Amino acid sequence: MTSQQLLDINARYASAKALALEAAQLGMDFYRKREALTIEHKGDDLQDVVSIADKQIEAFIRERLTQLFPEDGFLGEESGSADLGARCVWVIDPIDGTACFVNGLHNWCVSIGLLIDGEPHLGAIADPNHNELFHGCLGKGAFVNDAPLKVSAATHVGQGVTATGTFHPRGKEHFIPFMEKLLAEGGMFFRNGSGALMTAYVAAGRLLGYYETELKSWDCMAGLVLVKEAGGRVNDFFRNDGLLLGNPYLVACPGVYSQLAEMIGPSLDD
Ligand code: IPD
Ligand code: CA
Ligand code: CA
Question: Where, by residue number, does Mg(2+) 2 bind (predicted)?
Fold first, then answer.
């Protein structure tokens, strides 16, 4: 028996799915009463918002995971990290798409990913507005609800839609040059305000690829597994301490990955 089999991966996979669904319903309770939420800004960036909903959902997930798997580590957007040296580290975004959430746009989700020995191993992304649970586990495939996911078979950016995004603190200077090249090649852009959902849509073949000038690990951890299991390609997001600091991010179907990487240029691997 290998050391990996000693870990109960099935129990963790089942818990990730169940917890994402439960947390998403908690999110819906807040979302229906969102006018009552007090919105705070993180630091100086007016676009970087948070509310009690984000904090309470993360606290709920963290408490449950600690009860279920006390030996595991944790990294969450709102409450920080613990035991990052553990073999299993949960990486959580309680609400991905908070700007959508507070403005009444139905594009947000709960994202729960698990690293095992430093590699993304399983993930669950729950979108309660569309009744979609995206989930996957290394070697077991990726699914939306019960339907298997497969990336697009496209071989050129002109054959579909590509997601893109940026944020203020770092990397935005790479955004317009990429957009110009994408449009010049006959591609088309998409952004719905949730990096986790856009990643899941790449896995589902709805989008050809997704480039964000800078993303955090909790935005994409769960989705990276889905893209790999659905046959897609991902960049080396974890280099240079990407887990804690974030990095430029590209996921795509194999037929357009290189084309998108070339449009982005060297900043993808900075
Ligand atoms: C944000 C979303 C958005 C991306 C930002 C993220 P949040 O996460 O994923 O699509 O463009 O970089 O910060 O703040 O809604 O959890
Ligand atoms: Ca996020
Ligand atoms: Ca968030």
Answer: 93
Question: Is there an atom of ligand 1 within 6 Å of 152 CB?
Answer: no
Q: What is the CATH number of the domain that holds 252?
A: 3.40.190.80
Task: State whether 134 and 167 are in the same domain.
Answer: no
Ligand 1 atom, smallest distance to 194 CA: 10
Residue 104 has pLDDT above 70, yes or no: yes
Domain limits at 71? 3-145
Tokens describing residue 104: 């009444």
Nearest CA to ligand 1 atom 4: 195
Helix and strand totals (H; E) in the chain: 9, 15
Specify the pLDDT at position 1: 39
141 and 12 housed in the same domain: yes
40, 51 contact by CB (below 8 A) = yes
pLDDT at position 121: 98
Asked if residue 98 has its Cβ within 6 Å of ligand 1, the reply is yes
Task: Judge whether 103 lies within some domain.
Answer: yes
pLDDT digits (tens, 9 = 90+) for 190-248: 999 999 999 999 999 999 999 999 999 999 999 999 999 999 999 999 999 999 999 99
Q: Is 219 annotated as a binding residue?
A: yes
Based on the fold, state whether residues 49 and 136 are members of the same structural domain: yes
pLDDT for res 167: 86
| Ligand 1 atom nearest to CA at 98 | 15
Number of domains comprising the chain: 2
**Residue 227 alpha carbon to ligand 3 centre in Å:** 20
Distance CA 112, CA 126 (A): 9
Residues 32, 140 within the same domain: yes
